[in-house]
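Q&A log
Question type: sequence-to-structure
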Amino acid sequence: LGDRGVPDRVGRLIFEGNTITRDRVILNQLRDDFRPGQILPYDKIDEARMRLARLGVFDAENPPTIDVLPNEFDSAFRDVLVRVNETRTGQFMLGG
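Response status: OK
Response body:
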């Protein structure tokens, strides 16, 4: 629960580090669990992070992370930051 006793909701989805891999490839791994406005499923963050790692296009030594950040506009919303580091093989994974 958030600051006001109500569930946190997903604000913005922010992707960092994906210069070659399209946003939708990452979004597909988040499935329908992390859509703006929905209740933030804290219990599914690790699962989504593991799905991203299993794609095989991100650096295994520095695996994807998913962080929940305060939203600057509304305390009921939390932004979801997905940070990835692409590998060389990621250059061939353009679609999704």
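Response note: Residues 90-94 have pLDDT under 50 and may be disordered.
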